[in-house]
Amino acid sequence: MQLYTKILLGMLIGVVLGLLVGPNSFLLPQDGVDLTSNAKVLDQPDGQEVAAAKLLKTAKLVDPLDKDAQWLRIRWSLTSADILKLRETTNVQGLKAGKKLEGWVRNDPASVQPFASWGRTLVDWTEWIGRLFLALIKMVVVPLVFFSLVVGVASLGDFRALGRLGGRTIAYFTLTTVMALVIGMGIANIVKPGKLLGEDDRNSLLASYEGSVGDTVNKAVEAPSLVDQIVGIVPTNPFQSLASGDMLQVIFFALMVGIALTMMNTDHAQPVVDLFARLNDAMVMLVHIAMALAPIGVAALLFKVVGSTGLSVLAALGVYCLVVVVGLATHLFLTYGSVIKFGAKLPVFGFLGAIKEALLMAFSTSSSSATLPVTMEACEDNVNVSGRITSFVLPLGATVNMDGTALYQGVAALFIAQIYGMDLGFADQVTIVVSATLASVGAAGVPGAGMITLAMVLTAVGVPAEGLALILGVDRLLDMFRTMLNVVGDSTAAAFMARLEGDNLRIMSDAEDKERADKGFEHRLDHPPHAVPPHDD
Ligand code: ASP
Predict the structure, then answer these.
(1) Which residue range is the domain that position 94 belongs to?
(2) How far is the CA of 483 from the centre of ligand 1 (A)?
(3) pTM above 0.90, yes or no
(4) Does 221 have pLDDT greater than 70?
C-alpha cells in the first residue's frame, strides 16, 4: 500500500472513531460537563454558591443527562494542587484532596457543555501519538529551511537572479491573496450567510463560546508598524532566531550566509556548501522517518478534532462553513488552476496529485509550517522544482502567504457583521481586504492562528470582536481546509516561479515513485543502515 493511501486510511479511522466514540459521540452516555467561566455551582437549586467549586472546569453528572432539566447535579473532587490554588483567592477550610463534593448548576449552554467522559478519556490516552508525530516533523523544519536555503542561494551565485525571484514571488503572493479575498467576500456578499442564522442559534452560540473569546482577543496584540516589521526581519542574534524558530529571520540569515559564501574564494566556500548540502540530505531522510509514523499520527490528530467538535454547531453554521469551503474551492480551481495550467504549464489534477502527501498533512495537522518539510519534498521530488526555488519560495510562503486564511477572514468578517445587522459599504469592504491581507501575512502557520489575527480585521471595521464566539465552534474544522489551500498556494507559487526561472518541470507518476527509491515518498527507508566510515585525511 502506498504511503498516501495509508495516510488516507488513518484519517478515515480517526474521523469515524471521533464520531463514534469521541467526547461528543452520540453513542456514549453524556455523563460529564465542562463548566464555562460563567457557571455558578450552588449547594442546591437557587441556593448559595459553593466556594470549593470556584475554579472548577469539569465535573461528572450525578444523574443521567436530562436535556430539559433546569438544574443539573454535579460531582467532583479536588487534588491537593487544586486546593492550594483555591486558597489563594478564597477562604476555604477543611477541604480534603480526593473527597467527593456535590453541587448544582443551571442547565444552559452559557454555563455547561455536556460530554461523554469515556470519549474524553480515549482522547486523553491517544492524544500523545499525534503530538509525538507533530513534534518529530516540526523538529526538522528550522534546520531544513536553513541548510537548504544556504545551499540554494550559494548555488545560484547571482544576486540579480535572487532579487528577481524575490520580487516576483512577493508580487505573486500579494496578488493571489487579494484575489482570494475578492472571491470569498464576493460569495459572502451574494449568499449573505449571516442573515440565515436563526435568533436561537445566534444566542446559544454567543453564550457557549463567550468565555473562550477573551483568550483569543487577548492574544491579538497590536501589530507593529511596517518599518518595525521590516527592521525586525534582520536578526540581532541569528542563533536566537534559529532557536525560537522565527522563520523570516531564519530566511534572512540563510540568504545572507548563502550570499557571503558566493563572494568567498571557491576553494574555501565549497566545503561549507558541501557540508550543508549533506546535512540537508540528512534532514530530508528525517522527514521520511517521521512520515512513516504519519498514518497513525493523523488518525490520532483527527480523532481529537472530530471528537471534540459538536455536530450541533456544525448544523447551525452550515451555510457559513459552506461559503468558506466553496470560496476555497473556487480560489483553488479558478486562480491556482489557471496559474498551474497557463503559468507552470502543468495539468491541474496531475499537479494536485503530485503534492497529495503535503495536502493530507496540511489537512490533518492544520499547520502549514509543520507541513513545510513535506511540501518541499513533494515539490522537489514529484514536480521536479529545483531546490534553489523550493528552499526560498516555500519557507517564505509558509510564513507569509496564506490565501486560505485571508479568504476565511474575509467571509468571517462579513458573516459576523451581517449577524450584528451591520451593512458594510464599499469602503469598509476595502478595509477588510487590506487588513485581512496583512492579518494573513501576520498569522503564523500554526493551528488557529488565522482566528487570532481575525480579531484585528474585525476591529479595523468596527465589528465587535465578541462576534468571534459565533464561529469559534467550527474554526478548527475550517482551519483544516484553509491550511490545505495555503499549502496549495505555496506549491503553486513554487512551480510557477520555477517555470519562470527555466526549471524543467514534470510530474512524477506513482509508478516511477515506486521504482525510484531515491525520489518521492515510497521506499525511501528501504536502504539497509550502514555505519559511516570515519574520515582519515
Ligand atoms: N492554520 C493555518 C496555517 O497553518 C493558519 C490559520 O489559522 O489560518 O496555515
Answers:
(1) 40-64+76-105
(2) 5
(3) no
(4) no
